[in-house]
Amino acid sequence: MRSVVTLVLLLTFLVLACSTVDEVDSGGSLHLPALQSYTVYVDPSVSPLGQTAIVEAVRQWEEFTDVTIDVRQGPHVCIFEPSCFAVYEINFADFNTIVDGSYIGYTIPSFVFLSTAISSYDEEQDTVIHEFGHMLGLLHPCTAPCFEDAIMNPTYRNGADEVTCLDVEQFNAIRPEIDAGVPAMACTDASGPRDEAADGGPGGDL
User: Fold this and answer.
1) 113-129: b or e for each residue (b if 16 or more CB lie within 10 Å)?
2) Biggest alpha carbon distance in the chain?
3) What is the pLDDT of residues 131-142, one digit of tens each?
4) In order of start, what are the domains of the chain with their CATH numbers?
C-alpha cells in the first residue's frame, strides 16, 4: 500500500499538484475548481490530532467563506466527484526522497494527504487548514521564499497560523458562478493565533 501511495503522489507531483511544505516551495500550481459545497471523508489512518485539526479547518473556512463542508468518518473512494475528497495520513519519506522535498501535506483532485511526521497540534492545524484551502480552489499567493500573512503561504512557517483576509480575498476572487452578484463577505483580521495553545491542543477561540 505504501508503494502504491508513493507512486500516486509522484505521478501527481509531475503534473503540478498543490502542497504544503515546511522548508521548500512546492512549485505546484494545480487550481482545483471552487465549488459551493464539499464532502470530506476522513480515513481511519488520520490521527486524533489530525481529526481535531480537520474540525478546526472546517470551522474556519466555513466562518470566513460561504462554502459548506460535510465531514464524514470512514474510508471512501471519490470517483468523478469534484466536490468529494478523502483525507489520508501517510508516510512521506519515500516521496520526499524521490522528489528531494520536505512535503508534509499534499492535495490533488479527490485526495488530501497529511504526513505522519507531523508531531505537534499547531503544525497539524496549519497544514490541514492550508490543504483544505487548496481543496477550495486556492493557490499559493507567492513563490517561496516569501512571507505573505496568509495560511496559503507556500512555506507554512513563513505564513499565518489561521485563515486571514488575504486568503478570503483570494477566495472571493474565485467564487463559484452560482454566487454571481452576491457581495463578497467582509473580513477583519483578529489579532493573535486562533485555536492554538502552548499545550499542543486547541485552546479558546478569539
Assistant:
1) bbbbbbeebbbbbbbbb
2) 47
3) 999 999 998 888
4) 2-12+35-179 (3.40.390.10)
